[in-house]
Amino acid sequence: MPDASATRKSPIVPLVVAAVALVAVVLTLVTSRGEGSDGPTAAESGTGAAGAQAEGHALDDAWAQLVRGEEGDPMALGDVDAPVVMISYSEFQCPFCGKYARDTEPILVEKYVDSGVLRIEWRDFPYLGPESTTAAQAGRAAAAQGKFWEFSKLMYDNQLPPNSGKLTEDYLVSIADDLDLDTNEFRKDMVARGTKDAIKQDLAEGQAIGVTGTPAFIINGVPVIGAQPTEVFEQAIEKAAEETDADGS
């Protein structure tokens, strides 16, 4: 059984350094492409071909540090070697995360995950209050029994208002029971130190790259912020797949 409560093996400091490098490059790209502008050319910016190549390597290295890419990861969907990876910083109280999960995610799974093009990796970003943290712990407890995505679906299909006071441990255990999970193990995994540490690590990672709210996505190094229309995700995924093919990787 995968231990979803365990922290990842790589130390947090190198990961954060890589994450900061990533967001620096991403922000440069977003700024240069934003507001209808194509941004400065290499010659105008003074970087030249060598500078552009170095920037590309920095982006690739930082992105590689952010992607878990673990076989059998219960909090990921899709092939571990899929050409496109989407990291999703999410939380169970966020209504916009719920909208994405109900309206867009099933389409992306059917169209891109099932065909081997896309891998989705979840990151906990519980920022709306203590109930968010409790729900994140429950998600990892469900993952420890191989039912994270089923748990996620039930949470979003029956989403409670933020900070309603109803998102209690007993409520979350009732969802685990609906999924036929071992509720005794579920309760233990919810409060395990490894579970709490893993959530803190995800939160720190998101904060390090500038995530301030949810949902926030990074698709092969390119940010997509908020519950955008499904078409925005489709265009970003297809563009990333085309670029990967063009690179021959």
Automatic annotation (TrEMBL):
It holds the Pfam family Thioredoxin_4. The chain crosses the membrane at residues 12-30. SUPFAM superfamilies: Thioredoxin-like. Residues 53-242 form the Thioredoxin domain. InterPro entries: Thioredoxin-like_fold, Thioredoxin-like_sf, Thioredoxin_domain. One of its GO terms (molecular function) is oxidoreductase activity. Belongs to the thioredoxin family. DsbA subfamily. This is Protein-disulfide isomerase. The lineage of its organism: Bacteria, Bacillati, Actinomycetota, Actinomycetes, Propionibacteriales.
